[in-house]
């Protein structure tokens, strides 16, 4: 085997390895921003297979298989352009007047047409058209790189990549212009290898940097979640004649949902459930402000309407462009009543021992919208065996795979379950997961169940 054949085989093997690693990495990560890795890998694999097929053709010259190998090489040559041009679109965008996008779409259209020609004509019948397409596409890419060079990721603007790109372009031009330099020697694979190695270096560096940033972000989110969980009650307080349980499931690492308790007397408990508009870190930051606002209103904790009024004023003054729904209830087992004030939140449900379910249907304005908003109280009777449910809208708005909402009627059905408050919350979570068809939710999920076990009067 000649030295040039050995070099081509070695280059093909290296490119094949590069391509396989890139495609595998893209598949394992399964992120939309890894299209760059995928098209880079496909281009490497196609070029590598073409190089190796050319070596196989040399060995098949004396047999009947040479024509088949030649057709394969031609098809690979036509299709290499598609992922190659798509790689540059992933790198620099659609380009001026979408010229880069048009370049790879044109290459794809040509490859489809050339495939049909190749199957009905002698090998390389469409090659006279392929070379101009490569030259035009290369010119479009070079032009757009000059225009949008500042938009290219920093790693791809390093000198080593720039030099490799220049060598690559020069060697590709030489091949597609009929080899004015080195007429007897195909030097294009060397230019491709140099460019692929340089780009591989840049891509790997970009991926590693992204992974490092992701790890750092995950650590920060874990810390934020620990801080947020420290703001939540570790367990419901004990109140005479009352059994309380909570289900709290953030959609992401941190949540915009919040719940809290204030023990008001041995037989009275204040319960807050709030939901900040939005998700993630911004909502979690506002939720911490809601916690602060609730602490500020502690002096008025016996009066739910006064609590929401104070919270609303605090949030209007300190939180902008974010709204909060909230409900605050005072459950008194001594007077057998629950008093509720609502700020744009799902109604509190009360299930009576006989099976009837009532709700506090009066709703005030969401918190943080208007500083002078007023809120009212509504009282409902409760007695032994009755259940009170406070929840966020992540529950009735949970959707199944068909897009149907869970809705309030199914929420009401939870209150007919036998068992203590914890049994109700556990069954509710199972129902939600079964409805969704998976564990995750599209919104934060919070519910508080309070079951009246006995009259709270002192003996």
Note down, in words, how this protein is organized:
Helix 3 (66-92) packs parallel to helix 5 (127-147). The model has no long low-confidence stretch (mean pLDDT 82). By secondary structure, the chain is of the alpha+beta class. It folds into two domains: 3-216; 234-452, Phosphatase 2c, domain 1 (4-Layer Sandwich), CATH 3.60.40. It is 52% helix and 14% strand. The chain has helices at 3-29, 35-59, 66-92, 99-120, 127-147, 159-176, 188-231, 280-296, 304-318, 407-414, 421-436, and strands at 242-249, 257-265, 268-276, 324-332, 337-343, 349-351, 357-359, 378-381, 387-391, 445-452.
What is the secondary structure topology, with strand pairs?
Layout: H1 3-29, H2 35-59, H3 66-92, H4 99-120, H5 127-147, H6 159-176, H7 188-231, E1 242-249, E2 257-265, E3 268-276, H8 280-296, H9 304-318, E4 324-332, E5 337-343, E6 349-351, E7 357-359, E8 378-381, E9 387-391, H10 407-414, H11 421-436, E10 445-452
Antiparallel strand pairs: 1-10, 2-3, 3-4, 4-5, 5-8, 6-7, 6-9, 9-10
Give the proportion of residues in helices.
Answer: 40-55%
Please summarize the sheet with the most strands: 5 strands, antiparallel
Strand and helix order:
HHHHHHHEEEHHEEEEEEHHE
Which of globular, elongated, flat, extended, rod-shaped describes the shape? elongated
Which fold name corresponds to the CATH topology of the largest domain? Phosphatase 2c, domain 1
Q: What's the number of helices?
A: 11
Number of domains: 2
